[in-house]
Amino acid sequence: MEQHHEPWLTAFFNDHLAGAGNTLLGLIGEHAHNPDRPWSIPVSMELVVGLVMVALFAWLRPRLSVDKPGKMQHLFEIVYGFLKGQSEDQIGHHGSRYVYFFGTLFFFILFANLLGSIPTFESPTMFPEVPLGCALAAFGYYNYVGMRANGVGKYLAHFAGPMPLMAPLMIPIEIVSHLARPMSLTIRLFANMYAGEQVTMVFLGLTYLVMPTIFMGLHVFVSFLQAYIFTLLTMMYVAGAVAHDEH
Asked: Where do the domains of the chain lie?
């Protein structure tokens, strides 16, 4: 992948908070390739996304009202209702118990995707490590809820398939299938966001009025679409994990 120009925010972190960055890396047993500039672009952009989410929901929480809901509350109620409906369609009437994870995943990916539409910022999801982190979170979550719903023994037993004689064949197939899911989620999100970012930047460099508006609108549409697809696939994985006992 080509080298990215360091945005002003990443440069600010590296110029003024290099010590904090090295300390954080040391806590997880890592070391920066360049100790003078330990902050990477995706990490600094993820911090922006996290701060925006915390600030937005902290601002919204005390303003929630049953009698006089505001426009922002209406918007988030629509999104919540949509995610809840989708989770119940995929998982069943118990799907609403998982909507909090789905909502967190959806909003994080959405805001991360949209960040690239703001000048001088970049979408952290156009760097493979960020989609990979989201994919691993989804992978760990659906396996966890599957074990909690069915018990560890019953959950692991589904890897052997319905026929004991087929177990030697089914177990490796199921393992490979499950391990391929994080890779599939990662590549799908990263490839679409990276390609969309490159196409947008090319046309922004060629034209200055009508075409940039069109491609920025396309970028916003792709941002919503990719956040939805990632969340929907996670719902499907959770549905398969918690339904094994019924099958």
From this structure: 10-39, 46-242
